[in-house]
Amino acid sequence: MTSIVDDRSDSAFVLESRETVAPCGIRWTAVLAPPAWLAAAAVTAWWPQPQDWPRTTELVAVALAVAVVVLVTAVFGHRLGKFGRAARRGEAWMIALAVIFTAWELVTAKLAWLPVPFFMPPQAILEVYLDEGAMLAECVAYSALLLVKGVAIGGVAGFVFGLALGWSPVASYWGHPILRFVGPIPATAWLPFAFFAFPSSASAGVFLIALATGVPVAVLTWSGVATVSSAYYDIARTLGANQRFLVLKVAIPAAMPHVFVGLFMGLGGAFAVLVVAEMMGVKAGLGWYLQWAQGWGAYGNMYAALVVLAILCSGAVTLLFRVRDHLLAWQKGLLRW
Question: CA-based Rg of the chain, rounded to a whole angstrom?
């Protein structure tokens, strides 16, 4: 029995894909996804187009490759473990992406309903990746390095500051007004100060990203530590716990869900600041690439960079969720974000 027909022995899959299984036992998403991508390849290859777009042949190959992958996962997904289950959950999305891809190709390259160069066809985006992949990769590496530095510094500083605010009344007395005064200011408003105070645009960018990350982490860490039930501390003290144990083994573990919420919020702000900082003064990175492409009217390059930026942001959030799920395994089933 192939996985196109519902396999009732896989209880997890049945639970996840209950809505996509017809009463007759056929998963129509598995049946329709490969033809949808074959149709997209056929439209790209054989529909006449008013002008010659390079890389059309390569785009047809990509669509055919996706069709083959979707077909393989539909037929043999039940033998591919986690990858097969994930691929089968995404079959409906693969159909939607094929429809979007075909419509995009039709209204841009084939029918020319949308003006060029503001709306470029898919093969123009693919051309950017094939011809300028090395330059984009260098910009991704630079942006990733800048982001990691800023998020690491801001996350650690925000965590320590928030922990002090939540644990120490003295730190709360002096630090809380500062946080309430500085916190609401958008990180991008510090641009003039950062580029004046720091010796290089890269260090200024790290400062801005750290600021955008650190404020929400500090607020959420302080909130998490301050809301820990006093009963936990009383029980620990009864068992002989000292101050260090109360902080490391009671306060911090109880506040970790709040800390990850702060990291999630800070990561979103960090990406926004990253693009702005690179546009203002940094000589490389995705923000610089976006501004460079806009200046030359290379909208295909701009869209290609936006796709890469979206993938980078989504990957960072996914990595954060994986770390959270690993560290907070004791709260599995309770977290809903």
Answer: 25
Decide which of 12 and 155 is more confident. 155
pLDDT of residue 199: 86
With beta carbons less than 8 A apart as the criterion, state whether 265 and 154 touch.
Answer: no
d(CA 76, CA 84): 8
The β-bridge partners of 21 are 27
2-11, 91-100, 149-158, 185-194: the lowest-pLDDT one: 2-11
Separation CA 149–CA 174 (nearest Å): 28
- Give the tens place of pLDDT for each residue, 146-175: 999 999 999 999 999 999 999 999 999 999
User: 50 preceded by cis ω (within 30°)?
Assistant: no
Rounded-to-integer distance, Cα 231 and Cα 221, Å: 19
Sign of CA dihedral 58, 60, 61, 66: positive
Give the DSSP per-residue string, 284-299: SSHHHHHHHHHHTT-H
For the chain, list the domains and their CATH numbers: 28-110 (no CATH), 122-328 (1.10.3720.10)
